[in-house]
Specification:
By secondary structure, this protein is of the alpha/beta class. The chain has one domain. The chain is built from eight helices and twelve strands.
Length: 253
């Protein structure tokens, strides 16, 4: 098994064009590296060391297929665990991490702009809209980094679906939910949640769209294939395609 050290992760990301001031939204499968000395904490340190003057964002998703008006999710920013892997779950527990207040599609961020990145998510009408960190990452000319995963793990695709208003993606009725902030105070919000019963989609169909506009760099760190995606290019070009062809990602359509 390949052994990967922190400095090799930093070097690999720098070689892919990530600068010290970059903002990166990282989706990861830690096991894809091989064996990482120091585990999840070492990966997190490497990400932070890569962008000491920027920001690291990780998805801390909590949504479930059962979520909806009859079974609204309850979210506490301090304690609700995520299902997106050991790196995000370890990351969100750090004292310097700020987590966005969204009951299904939160992120956690560390960096100079973490408050700006996470602060407006509670005002989203849909999980990944213009108020979400996924869109703000693009506004900040940030990157999406896929470590050992493909576009199926790229939550920013949902942002593109929501901005393009594809017909299959969201539940038709809003769900009223309770979210609890860092101060322990709870408040009610209302949101159109994802429709988990939607037709099967293939997010990887968007890869050529982004590649056509030079929006993806590909590299290798340890055993892991790493993609660095320009978030602004991805959202701009994919929304154009989805507005013109709303069923573009449906399988066997």
């Amino acid at each position: 098994m390949t052994i990967v050290r922190e400095k090799e992760i930093v070097t690999g990301l720098r070689d892919l064009g990530i600068s010290s001031a970059s903002t990166i939204l990282v989706h990861s499968a830690m096991s894809s590296f091989g064996h990482v000395e120091g585990g999840a904490n070492a990966v997190i340190r490497a990400l932070l060391d890569t962008v000491p003057d920027g920001n690291v964002i990780v998805p801390t998703l909590t949504g479930a297929a059962s979520d909806g008006p009859e079974n609204p999710p309850v979210f506490d920013v301090r304690s609700t665990p995520c299902w997106t892997g050991i790196v995000p779950e370890t990351f969100r527990k750090r004292k310097d991490a700020l987590r966005s207040l969204h009951p299904t599609h939160s992120v956690s961020a560390i960096g100079c702009d973490a408050a700006c990145i996470t602060g407006d998510h509670a005002n989203s009408i849909t999980p990944c809209d213009e108020h979400s960190p996924y869109y703000i990452n693009a506004l900040m000319k940030g990157y999406i980094v896929l470590i050992g995963v493909d576009f199926e793990s790229n939550t920013t695709v949902h942002c593109c679906e929501e901005l393009a208003e594809v017909p299959y993606h969201l539940q038709k009725v809003k769900t009223n939910m309770t979210i609890t902030g860092y101060d322990g105070k709870s408040k009610k919000i209302s949101n159109y949640l994802h429709d988990w019963s939607k037709p099967m989609t293939d997010f990887n169909l968007l890869v050529p769209v982004v590649q056509e506009h030079n929006g993806i760099r590909k590299g290798q760190i340890g055993d892991s294939t790493v993609l660095v995606i320009d978030a602004e290019i991805m959202i701009s070009e994919c929304v154009k395609v989805l507005k013109q062809h709303p069923l573009f990602m449906l399988v066997n359509y």
